[in-house]
Amino acid sequence: MKPRVETLYVHVPFCTHLCPYCDFPKERLGGNRMRDFLRGLRAEWAWARQEFEVIPRRILFGGGTPTALSPSLLQELLEIAPWGEADEWTVEANPDGFGSSKASMLAEAGVTRLSLGAQAFLPKDLAWLGRRHDRATIVSACKASRKAGIRDLNLDLIYGLPDQGPAEWQATLEEACALEPDHLSAYVITPEAGTELTAMIQRGEWHPDSENEAMLFLLTQRFLEAHGFTAYEISNFARPGRECRHHKSVWSGEDYLGLGPGAVSTIAGRRWRNVRDTSQYARSAETGPHPYHEDEEVCGDVERRTERILLGLRTNAGLEEEALSGHEECLSELVQKGWGRRLDGRFLLTARGRLRADAVAVMLI
What we know:
Layout: E1 4-12, E2 14-15, E3 27-28, H1 31-51, E4 53-63, H2 71-79, E5 88-93, H3 100-109, E6 113-119, H4 123-128, H5 135-148, E7 152-159, H6 166-178, E8 183-188, H7 196-202, H8 210-226, E9 230-233, E10 236-238, H9 245-251, E11 257-259, E12 264-267, E13 270-274, H10 278-287, E14 293-298, H11 301-312, E15 319-320, H12 328-337, E16 340-343, E17 346-349, H13 351-354, H14 357-364
Parallel strand pairs: 1-4, 1-11, 2-3, 4-5, 5-6, 6-7, 7-8
Antiparallel strand pairs: 8-10, 9-10, 12-13, 13-14, 15-17, 16-17
Helix pairs in contact: 1-10, 2-3, 3-5, 6-8
């Protein structure tokens, strides 16, 4: 019997420009390489349908910037597979270059959810992040999405930036909420190996401020909950019933299929990553039987349990206490410190506990 997969991620590695903090597989737009990508994706999709029982229910197109493709190539991407049959289909977009035409194209294809990379509103923050849009562009993109009839709207935001105190960050949250999104993702700026951001730190041009980040994290929790959002994961906030189904599926440990250069899959106890280079991805997908796989591994019971704890602690669903047997003393200590709480047979972290989620996970693994 073929393994059944309902959660899909499609990685589109193209951007109009490369941001200094991003470490996802990506490259600048290039006509021939974009066509290589589409050929490779078709070939990988054909292989996946033979190898697995693929029933798209929760799909996320990420990147890169999927909507950076030209209208004709974007249309090709949207038509490669029956993505529109999914219950939830999220497409990531940047405000610049996203207007009514592409919004309508997505809506007509069946996209139900737009995730817009706003990241910031203040000009100085946008400039430091290397973003090319402004407030007006964010507003325009949101209006285009709503007018086209895309059901859900998420805004991505980043905090912990230089000279960003509580007042500046709250102003950003206020501007975001004024656009009435259904979902907000708020991520702390994180230096990743090989990025320009890490090089800036090494040159002494900037250093993260962990105390300020913690203060802004707690402010985010309080502010967004007061404005009708639930923190259903450390960095993700949704209005009732508008959580991202794709995210929740992955966090709960369900299998998922990743398509595209650099995409990761976890299916039937196996995990692999596609080769990151777009041309090599396309060639290996077409010659078959599948794109070249890097970092292949078998995920045994120990690995899956570790992941369940790491991911479960980040969510408001928490973990079943049965899964944490043998750690009774540790759980009691976490509750006493105000970092955790017990509810109906489950263990959950409080907002202050989520600040220490990775450290708590180490204690419970």
